[in-house]
């Protein structure tokens, strides 16, 4: 399939697919006229990329997941390198949650103080 068809099927744009290609995430073949050709496996790769980006992963973090899919696995998260990235990302998210909990508690305390001062 051509880049426009893959973009449509994956719910993205040709420009985004070219960006993924620049970063080594997708691998089109080329026609004699230079047009990019994608097989159905690339649709699965692009779907995985988009899901990971939506979850806050960076382009470099995504590479092990793509390699895992290209190795013939049904999912990109079953390989050791992918698991390491998942663990690191989970630790980051846990850290954010801890920070947000501290901020939330501080805001709640401030609001309680204001309510106490406002009631006669």
Keywords:
120 residues; Multidrug-efflux Transporter Regulator, Chain: A, Domain 2; two-stranded antiparallel sheet; 5 helices; elongated
Q: Give the DSSP E fraction (strand runs of 2 or more residues).
A: under 5%
Which CATH architecture? Orthogonal Bundle
Work out the helicity level: 55-70%
Low-confidence stretches: none
Count of alpha and pi helical runs: 5
**How many DSSP E strands?**
2
CATH top level? Mainly Alpha
Based on helices, strands and strand pairing, what is the structural class? mainly alpha
Shape: elongated
Report the average pLDDT across residues.
94
Distance between the termini: 72 Å
Oligomeric assembly: single chain
Walk me through the structure.
The protein starts with a helix and ends with a helix. It has helices at residues 3-10, 14-22, 40-54, 59-70, 80-118, and strands spanning 29-30, 36-37. The chain is 69% helix and 3% strand. The chain is elongated and about 80 Å long. It has one domain (3-118): Orthogonal Bundle (Multidrug-efflux Transporter Regulator, Chain: A, Domain 2). The longest helix is centred in the C-terminal third of the chain and has 39 residues, at 80-118. The chain has 120 residues and is mainly alpha-helical. Keywords: DNA-binding, Transcription, Transcription regulation. It comes from Actinoplanes sandaracinus.
């Amino acid at each position: 399939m051509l880049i426009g068809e893959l973009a449509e099927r994956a719910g993205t744009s040709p420009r985004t697919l070219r960006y993924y290609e620049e970063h080594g995430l997708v691998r089109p073949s080329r026609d004699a006229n230079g047009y990019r050709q994608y097989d159905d496996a690339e649709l699965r790769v692009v779907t995985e990329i988009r899901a990971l980006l939506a979850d806050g992963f960076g382009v470099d973090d995504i590479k092990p997941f793509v390699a895992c899919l290209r190795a013939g696995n049904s999912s990109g998260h079953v390989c050791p390198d992918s698991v390491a990235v998942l663990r690191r990302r989970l630790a980051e998210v846990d850290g954010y949650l801890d920070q947000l909990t501290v901020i939330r508690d501080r805001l709640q305390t401030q609001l309680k103080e204001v309510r106490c001062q406002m009631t006669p």
